[in-house]
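Tokens in:
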């Protein structure tokens, strides 16, 4: 209730300062409609550049729903760990927002040391690390070759951004699965057997 009241007051104050409600279209509306297709580290710009205009509304809604569809299931599963929930939602926001920046990525990555107790349960760290290093090196190179030198095209740069966002997805899913495995070990012990044979819980 207090959040709703505070948000309403901020909206009214913003409207008074801006002299009207046009600021909504220039802020929230701009993010939701994604009219600017300038290349960035996100996924929107390439798809909507290549897309037929009469499909734009459908795919825009499909892309934007990713910012909301994970909230409810993650909130139910991580109801006892709200800080991890917030970090996971920040990570998904950094991947699926229309105009992401490196600051969005750095924000949730700066929180990862809070869960260093989950590191032993993570299984994708080497792959994710290699992907981050490779894309961090290749991203500026491909952008420069495409925009400034004209010796490459959008596909090269988008391939790098796609790999970069895939690495983020691997990272957050590995972290969440590590949380689930740790909870399982805390309740059932670390020794696992299937039909009397030692087994290991892995992500498929």
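Residues out:
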């Amino acid at each position: 209730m207090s959040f709703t009241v505070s948000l309403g007051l901020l909206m009214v104050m913003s409207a008074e300062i801006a002299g009207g409600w046009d600021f909504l279209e220039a802020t929230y509306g701009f993010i939701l409609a994604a009219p600017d297709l300038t290349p960035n580290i996100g996924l929107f710009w390439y798809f909507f550049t290549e897309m037929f205009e009469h499909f734009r509304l459908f795919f825009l809604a499909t892309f934007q729903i990713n910012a909301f569809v994970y909230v409810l299931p993650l909130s139910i599963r991580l109801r006892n760990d709200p800080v991890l929930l917030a970090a996971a939602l920040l990570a998904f926001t950094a991947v699926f927002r229309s105009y992401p920046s490196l600051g969005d990525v750095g924000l949730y990555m700066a929180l990862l040391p809070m869960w260093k107790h989950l590191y032993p349960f993570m299984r994708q760290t080497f792959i994710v690390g290699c992907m981050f290093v490779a894309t961090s090196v290749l991203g500026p190179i491909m952008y420069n070759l495409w925009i400034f030198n004209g010796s490459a095209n959008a596909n090269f740069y988008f391939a790098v951004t796609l790999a970069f966002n895939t690495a983020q997805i691997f990272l957050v899913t590995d972290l969440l699965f590590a949380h689930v495995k740790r909870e399982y070990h805390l309740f059932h012990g670390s020794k696992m057997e299937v039909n009397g044979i030692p087994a290991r819980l892995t992500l498929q």
